[in-house]
Amino acid sequence: MVEGVIASNKESKYAHSKLYHYAEDAYITVDGDILNAVVTFSKDMKRLHIAATWRDLLRLCVWKEDPKTGDLFVLFKNSGIRTEELLPFRDSDIGDLFPWLYYGRRFEVLRKICRVAKANAESRTSRNDILVHCHLISEELQCIIASSL
After folding, report:
1. So what's the pLDDT on residue 113?
2. What is the DSSP letter of 90?
3. pLDDT tens digits, residue range 27-74?
4. SS3 of 110, please?
5. Pairing state of beta strands 27-29 and 143-147?
6. pLDDT at 117 over 70
7. pLDDT at 120 over 70
8. How many angstroms separate the CA atoms of 112 and 25, rounded?
9. Are 10 and 20 in contact (CB under 8 A)?
10. What is the pLDDT of residue 78?
11. Domain limits for position 87
């Protein structure tokens, strides 16, 4: 196999497989600690796709199991969002930011966030020679809505 996939859950796996059609054994469904899955990934492949839900993508971006809103504000400011745009979300759950970005058509920000997750995953995987692609999966729509590609 040349490519493998770490999926956040079965819905993420399904959304990725709708587009990429990889063999069943190319998928690792995490349903838990995605950070550990990336760190311990050791299959002999050239490329790793990560099909992540919003929360798992943010975990990859800040490399914390439980990211806080403050962690995300720094990430979003570096992705082109002004501080005053983030103020209404200062006491919000991290899940509340996704609909604001998605329905606000801020796809360039979502792509930048995918690229940050990609860079973090590449630097932390046990394989130094692997190329990582990160895909943000909408569980509601069951499709990829942003990617590091």
Report:
1. 95
2. T
3. 999 978 999 999 988 778 889 999 999 999 999 999 999 988 888 888
4. helix
5. unpaired
6. yes
7. yes
8. 29
9. no
10. 86
11. 3-147
What's the one-letter identity of residue 100?
Answer: W
Give CA angle at 27 (12, 148), nearest 5°: 60
Rounded-to-integer distance, Cα 111 and Cα 62, Å = 15
Q: In angstroms, rounded to a whole number, what is the distance separating the alpha carbons of residues 86 and 29?
A: 33
Q: What's the one-letter identity of residue 9?
A: N
Cα 69 from chain centre: 17
What would the two tokens of residue 48 be?
């790793």
- 131 bridge partner residues: 47
What does the buried/exposed string (b/e) look like for 59-73 if buried means 16 or more CB atoms within 10 Å of the residue's CB?
A: bbbbbeeebebebbb
Number of domains in the chain: 1
Residue 104 — pLDDT band, cuts 50, 70, 90?
very high
Which residue type, as a one-letter code, is found at position 94? I
